[in-house]
Amino acid sequence: NELIAVSPLIGKISSLIVVILDNNLLSDLPVTFGSLTLLQRLSLMDNQLLELPSCVRSLTRLRRLNVESNAITQIPEWIGDLKLMEELSFSKNKINNFPSSVGLLKYLSDLRVAHNQMTALPPELGQALSLSRLRLSGNMFTDLPDSITDLTNLTDLSVADNNLQRLPPGLGTMTQLQNLIMENNPSLFAYIPPDILNRGVESTRGFLRALALAKETLQLTLMDLQISVLSPSITELTSITSLRLDRNAIAELPDHLFRMTNLTSLSLKTNKIDYIPVGLLKLTNLTYLNFDENPFKSFPMEIIRE
């Protein structure tokens, strides 16, 4: 189709429940469109919208709204007035904001804002407790708000093709989460060991759960996970007193490990460590150290003398 405008007379068809106007050349809707107060589904995919038409605000019975593949730059704050909204898609636009009012949409189960220009999410998103699918891929996020872990019904989360530096540790406690798509976030490999990311959602959740628990117990246990590199997400937990990394594939100890000066117990049994750096001397509170079943042949003399 090549519609460039919708007749104002459409407002007289007050019984309409579904309107689909995909693949046209529409840049707006007539004000009279707001008279369609029974409308439950509106699709305007692949048009030429620069903004969400203001008349949509009057469609208070709307449950499904799809405006994918337009040129919209802003999601209006009044989107939160559409209280019955269940499915909302703004993917493939030019959106650079994310209104806090989305948290008011108590029935929202599917939110798609992939392939836009957003850099941050409001903490209020965690109030949209019915969310089960959240698509955030292809934006410019560097972080996710911790409140996202309040979305206990979330089963699908896609954050691929961003620049995420970390994930909220509480993500590991989200027991309903079945699909977690994280590809093409290069900096994330510095936070979560690639060995764990490559093993899928269960391993990632388990890792994040262990990090969250460590903040409470001051004990971090990551055994039998095939970890080959100690990421900063582990060593930045400088307050923990016990670190167990037995039966992994760790070959060397990074310098940032030796910032964990509160450690009293460190176990690296059954790894691939062939060299013990003298930086170990910085862990002055250690009372228990286990390097059994590693291929190194001797301790540095400096450590032995200490």
Automatic annotation (TrEMBL):
UniProt entry keywords in alphabetical sequence: Leucine-rich repeat, Repeat
Residues of the Disease resistance R13L4/SHOC-2-like LRR domain: 11-113
SMART domains listed in its UniProt record: LRR_TYP
Gene3D superfamilies: Ribonuclease Inhibitor
The keyword Repeat belongs to this UniProt entry's keyword annotation: yes
Xref: Pfam families: LRR_1, LRR_14, LRR_8
Residue spans crossing the bilayer: none
GO cellular component: cytoplasm
Protein name per its UniProtKB record: Disease resistance R13L4/SHOC-2-like LRR domain-containing protein
Species this chain originates from: Hanusia phi
Lineage, broadest ranks: Eukaryota, Cryptophyceae, Pyrenomonadales, Geminigeraceae, Hanusia
